[in-house]
Prior knowledge:
- By secondary structure, this protein is α/β, with parallel strands linked by helices.
- It has seven helices and seven strands.
- It has helices spanning about 1-20, 55-60, 75-90, 95-105, 110-115, 140-150, 200-205; strands at about 45, 50-55, 60-70, 130-135, 155-160, 175-180, 190-195.
- The chain has a five-stranded mixed beta sheet with strand order 5-4-3-6-7.
- A hairpin with a 6-residue loop joins strand 6 (about 175-180) and strand 7.
- The longest helix is centred in the N-terminal third of the chain and has 20 residues, at about 1-20.
Amino acid sequence: xxxxxxxxxxxxxxxxxxxxxxxxxxxxxxxxxxxxxxxxxxxxxxxxxxxxxxxxxxxxxxxxxxxxxxxxxxxxxxxxxxxxxxxxxxxxxxxxxxxxxxxxxxxxxxxxxxxxxxxxxxxxxxxxxxxxxxxxxxxxxxxxxxxxxxxxxxxxxxxxxxxxxxxxxxxxxxxxxxxxxxxxxxxxxxxxxxxxxxxxxxxxxxx
Length: 207
């Protein structure tokens, strides 16, 4: 009996290590996810700076919606990639206005956008229409905020202690990156990246 209990504890420990060590293989249930061409679900979240990111932003602008957990190794690899693309767009000829828009997450009406843009730039430049937002999957503010500061990330994020927003898009596997485009009658998903992401692939999806 003692031997059986000892073996059981070893097996249980190994199973826990497998589950805890991988943010990709989480459950055996089939993966359910929105697909390219699907309408973007309606949701709203409060960003780390206190501003609101809502469905109106998705209806009017291209967006990069990132689901992550800072304890996930693949998420840790993907976030700097997304940061690099956002930073490159912010440093584009569109100038300071684009940088402010990309890093703050603030949504400007098109009438106000022209006031923030450089007079010599083209305010219809699509690079200025990209909104980046990172949404944690069941991870609260303290750990997310600490990781952002530690890693030097400036991407707008919303720390969600539950899976409510994530479950609108998928049931498991992170990181997940959804690129969306305004559409009629509803905005649609134009690209999806799961687990692995390169700057070139994300930049190509935003063209």
